[in-house]
Design brief:
Length: about 400
């Protein structure tokens, strides 16, 4: 038993060391990127925001898109139903923009911020893809002919003023994709919402300087219009559920870079219940199993290894009385893995607070809930093993393959 435990314990320690070193690289990358001067590359851009339902803080999220520090851009809000409650919020914001244009001269408007067109586009109900994908495909058709960059943002994200400028900048020299990621915050933290943030944080720190191993996140992503059209991404998205994985695969097939932009790390400010926590995390792993099976298998193995070794080490320390070497090996494993994990969480949070200063209030949760995150991952991976059906914004889908999706039913 000693040798079996030692083998798996050493494997876990090895991965923990690699994870810690990844945290060092993550912080270093943030610092190097934030030290760069602002780019002067600011082509006309189209910001596309698919919407469905009333996200917590929706008005504030969408308002942020109209107050970006960027010379010239348009915003396209796209929904699938004229009666969607998000439409009234969008309509009010659109009217506010028009009132500002009508009520001020160009000099007065420029002194505050430039205001550019706001469009509301209605997409058809999806049948063989996710509604978000259908919305994206419809919105792209309505982009201004002057637009040189398509920029995508989720309606539950709240971009900061420099978000668009920073996200578009890498496209000047790179012909691939620039991406950010989400960081969950909540105004009234609960254990469930902080647990979701800790779970999500481990994925956020997988991005970094490696252009080949990075992945796209459709909630904060920019791509040249020329690249979108050359790779025929609108058609490639047909039948899919995940824009993230589909665009990522297209970039890798075309051998194009995926640039992670730390300044495009975007807050998602909302609470969640434990039901919503497991619904969200399990949905992510079900999608991962279909679109990136090796990654799902690695997550399954990693979470099972962590949970198995740490639980075994704890039980050995508490219950074992006959084998002193086994007890000391268990204590050493708990100590080393915990120290490395806390260190990784601290390095990651240090990096994130360089972009989102308010994340400092998550110090306690980020430095403790890493212990529970692997258990959530393990539950998610097991659930993904037995089901390919997900519920997403009131719609139920069945994931047949990376290119086939079946819409089962909706809340309408």
């Amino acid at each position: 038993m000693l040798f079996l435990f030692l083998f798996f314990a050493l494997v876990l320690v090895y991965f923990s060391i690699r994870s810690f070193l990844g945290g060092v690289a993550y912080l270093s990358y943030f610092r190097s990127q934030l030290a760069k001067p602002f780019s002067g590359f600011t082509p006309f851009a189209t910001v596309i925001a698919p919407c469905k339902g009333l996200d917590e803080g929706l008005r504030e999220n969408l308002s942020a898109l109209l107050e970006l520090d960027y010379p010239e851009y348009e915003v396209i809000f796209v929904v699938d139903d004229e009666n969607d409650p998000a439409v009234s919020v969008i309509t009010e914001l659109k009217q506010d923009v028009q009132d500002e244009l009508d009520g001020k001269n160009e000099i007065e408007t420029s002194a505050k911020h430039r205001v550019y067109p706001v469009k509301i586009v209605f997409a058809a109900k999806s049948t063989d893809s996710s509604q978000k994908v259908e919305n994206i495909r419809e919105a792209v058709k309505n982009a201004d002919p002057r637009s040189e960059a398509f920029v995508f943002v989720d309606s539950d994200s709240r971009p900061q003023k420099q978000w668009l400028r920073n996200l578009v900048a890498p496209l000047e020299y790179d012909k691939g994709v620039a991406t950010g990621y989400r960081w969950f915050l909540s105004k009234r933290p609960t254990l469930a919402s902080e647990m979701r943030s800790a779970w999500n944080a481990s994925i956020a720190s997988a991005l970094g300087p490696n252009l080949k191993s990075n992945f796209c996140w459709g909630g904060s992503m920019a791509i040249r219009r020329e690249v979108w059209e050359r790779l025929n991404l609108s058609e490639r998205l047909r039948g899919t559920l995940s824009d993230d994985f589909t665009v990522t695969r297209a970039m890798k097939d075309a051998k194009l870079d995926i640039v992670f932009v730390p300044q495009a790390l975007t807050p998602s400010i909302e609470n969640c219940s434990f039901r919503e926590l497991f619904e969200f995390t399990t949905r992510q792993m079900k999608i991962t199993r279909v679109y990136a099976t090796p990654l799902w298998m690695l997550s399954f193995f990693g979470s099972a290894l962590f949970c198995g070794v740490m639980l075994s080490a704890f039980l050995i320390v508490v219950l074992s009385r006959s084998n002193a070497w086994l007890v000391w090996a268990a204590i050493a494993t708990l100590t080393v893995v915990s120290a490395l994990s806390v260190g990784k969480a601290w390095l990651r949070l240090r990096a994130v607070t360089l972009v989102i200063p308010t994340a400092t209030r998550q110090t306690l949760s980020q430095l403790t809930l890493w212990l529970l995150a692997p258990a959530v991952f393990l539950i998610n991976c097991i659930c993904a093993l037995f089901s390919r059906t997900i519920d997403w914004r009131g719609v139920r889908y069945r994931l047949i393959s990376p290119t086939q999706t079946e819409r089962l039913k909706s809340d309408k």
